[in-house]
Specification:
heterodimer, A: 78 residues, mainly alpha, DNA polymerase, domain 1, B: 567 residues, alpha+beta, 4-stranded antiparallel beta sheet, 15 helices, globular
Chain lengths: 78, 567
């Protein structure tokens, strides 16, 4: 089943402002270029709790899931 | 009784996650404490605008709700002997202001997050039915004014449904996104507050917003006070350390409100920085880089990420930033929404309840104490639930027939959005609203700016009636969601500006430059004329007022007498 991009976009709304701002930039710059596999990885990444995701994005905690590393790098650049 | 929870995001992704400080309760585990002292601190913190019956109720109930939460599995920090560990927090004292007290119960720096999870699990246990990613649109009221539920849109399909209910409880949070600079997450669009206003419920004390002095300009992300504690200096466009003029002794370490007002004065007098002269700079370039890396690593990361500035090399652009909404939907200590009706200023609206930041009980009055917001939502959330059960068992609540036009207002809003041609961009109108609020109703308020602000925000509100979205799809249409959220934000913005312009005194977070500090009006507070709650009505932007309840709930509890608020 294909993933609805609007749904993923909504799931980028988070509980922490820090993440909202990072995702706002990511959505404007990178989101439309994601392939289906990357989109599926993003759906998984977005299941993380906000503090764990923020720690990964700000670099205070390493990303240990290989297939997320590219996305986390994009978020860190956002 | 069946319970449905409608939520536009997954329940554990609400902004309560961001609450780190803890929840206040006079458990007395770490220092001697009792609820009378907590009540005194809260009344004083509110600058006497809080209702003393609701404050007594909240402070008395605090221990019960915290222990209950512990029994639900909330992982509070512990003392060596296994009790809930408590830490001190600003504004909380022992023995009526004599010394700091340890009253805040925390789960590391994730108190709100842990609380949401504990309560979500209890709901799963109780078989609460969650409608996740549903956007509530409008309150349904009948000819008697009773609330019969809400209309809501399922985001996955775009379909609108009626949730026909015997009781409706709002726990919809604040609307901090009305300001350009806000610490609030993007979801904080005051949806419940806007819905209540459109349905004819007045909004209470909306002029009172708490600001934090150092949010990153343009982003809002907080830079902790610890940066100034480490030697950070605030500078204006001339590079001047301007706090020396405002607070010669404490300088950059003066209290939050003093620093925020000084920053705003610098900006308003043309000494702000950047192309728009709309912020000041927080300078730590004189500190040793190794100390910055060691002591402030998170701040360096935030500065690089959100200001594009490495604070080792250049100062951080900062601005006073909106943090918390003290006003909201008027409620009593039972969580019932109350409105003026005839001689009664606080007549319950049958079937309607509210708790947390969207509600105004009023316990925070003109200024909230840290850790009292989580306590507010625990105590009044529980109280609202218990009142629903009581009202139901007493036979006060029934499934009244829906009016024929129950969904008309919502469908009309959606149809307008669908058919709008040559309309306004949602993004542009929201930005205009945020800039207007920031400039005209910020942390320090000026008569002329407020008067101009009323006209300006009403003009923005007219533009908001003509928003247009390019994407008309039904399924997961986030552009439509943002347009609907703007409808809610704009109600809150109007309420704030109009209420603030009218209140001709300084009290708590509402500080006017023309309110004189003298014996009759200490700190600019004018009890003779303004010791009263504001009520704003959306239908015609009119204001009404009702008295503050200065009488505690219990006959044997002494009222906290009016006094000048000093720390």
């Amino acid at each position: 089943m294909s993933i609805n991009r609007g749904r993923v976009r909504w799931h980028c709304r988070r509980a922490l402002l820090e993440l909202d701002i990072v995702f706002e930039r990511f959505l404007a710059r990178d989101f439309d270029r994601l392939g289906d596999d990357q989109l599926a990885d993003l759906v998984d990444l977005l299941q993380l709790e906000d503090y764990d995701l923020w720690a990964m994005v700000n670099g205070s905690k390493p990303c240990e899931v290989e297939r997320w590393k590219g996305l986390v790098a994009l978020l860190r650049q956002a | 009784m069946k319970t449905a929870v409608l939520t536009k995001v997954f329940p554990t992704r609400s902004h309560t996650v961001a609450a780190q400080g803890g929840v206040a309760a006079s458990l007395g585990n770490s220092t001697e404490d009792n609820w009378h002292w907590h009540m005194y601190d809260t009344v004083k913190g509110s600058d006497w605008l809080g209702d003393q019956d609701a404050i007594e109720f909240m402070c008395k109930k605090a221990n019960e709700v915290v222990v209950e939460l512990e029994h639900y599995g909330m992982p509070f920090d512990r003392t060596d002997d296994g009790k809930i560990y408590q830490r001190p927090f600003g504004g909380h004292s022992m023995n009526y202001g004599q010394a700091p007290v340890m009253r805040s119960c925390a789960a590391a720096d994730r108190t709100g997050h842990a609380m949401l999870h504990a309560l979500y699990q209890r709901n799963v246990r109780a078989n609460t039915q969650f409608f996740v990613e549903w956007m509530a649109l409008d309150l349904i009221r009948d000819a008697d004014g009773d609330v019969l539920g809400v209309t809501a849109m399922e985001m996955e399909t775009g379909e609108v449904s009626i949730f026909h209910a015997k009781a409706t409880i709002f726990a919809t949070g604040g609307a901090g996104r009305i300001y350009f600079s806000s610490t609030n997450a993007f979801i904080n669009t005051g949806d419940g507050v806007g819905m209540a206003a459109r349905a004819g419920v007045p909004l209470e004390d909306m002029e009172f917003w708490q600001f934090h002095p150092t949010g990153v300009a343009g982003a809002g992300v907080l830079i902790t006070e610890g940066v100034r504690g480490e030697g950070g200096i605030l500078r204006n466009s001339a590079g001047e350390r301007f706090m020396e003029r405002y607070a010669p002794n404490l300088k950059d370490l003066a209290s939050r409100d003093v620093v925020s007002r000084a920053m705003t004065t610098e900006i308003n007098e043309g000494r702000g920085c950047g192309p728009d002269k709309d912020h000041v700079l927080l300078d730590i370039t004189h500190l040793a880089p190794e100390n910055i890396m060691k002591r402030l690593p998170g701040i360096r990361e935030i500065s690089i990420q959100f200001a594009g500035i490495d604070p080792i090399k250049a100062p951080i652009p900062v601005v006073p930033t909106c943090h918390y909404q003290m006003g909201g939907i008027p409620t009593n200590y039972k969580g019932q929404v109350v409105v003026p009706q005839g001689e009664n200023n606080n007549a319950p609206v049958r079937g309607f309840y509210a708790a947390g930041e969207c509600a105004c009980a009023s316990v925070h009055g003109a200024n909230r104490l840290g850790t009292n917001s989580l306590l507010d939502l625990l105590v009044f959330g529980k109280s609202a639930g218990e009142t629903v059960v009581e009202d139901f068992e007493r036979g006060d609540l029934s499934l009244k027939p829906l009016p024929e036009d129950a969904a008309d207002a919502s469908l009309a809003r959606l149809a307008r959005l669908e058919n709008q041609k040559n309309g306004e961009s949602v993004h542009e109108v929201r930005l205009a609203m945020q800039r207007t609020m920031q400039k005209h109703a910020g942390v320090f308020r000026f008569n002329t700016l407020l008067k101009e602000g009323v006209d300006a925000i009403l003009a923005v509100a007219e533009r908001a009636k003509n928003t247009e979205i390019a994407d008309k799809s039904q399924v997961w249409n986030t552009a439509r969601m943002e347009a609907l959220e703007l409808d809610n934000l704009i109600e809150v913005a109007k309420a704030t500006m109009i209420s603030a312009e009218a209140r001709k005194e300084s009290r708590g977070a509402h500080v006017r430059d023309d309110a004189l500090d003298n014996a009759e009006t200490p700190n600019g507070r004018d009890d003779a004329n303004w010791l009263k709650h504001t009520l704003w009505y959306s239908e015609d932007n009119r204001l009404a007022y009702k008295p503050v309840n200065l009488k505690p709930m219990s006959d044997d509890v002494e009222p906290i007498a009016l006094a000048k608020r000093t720390y």
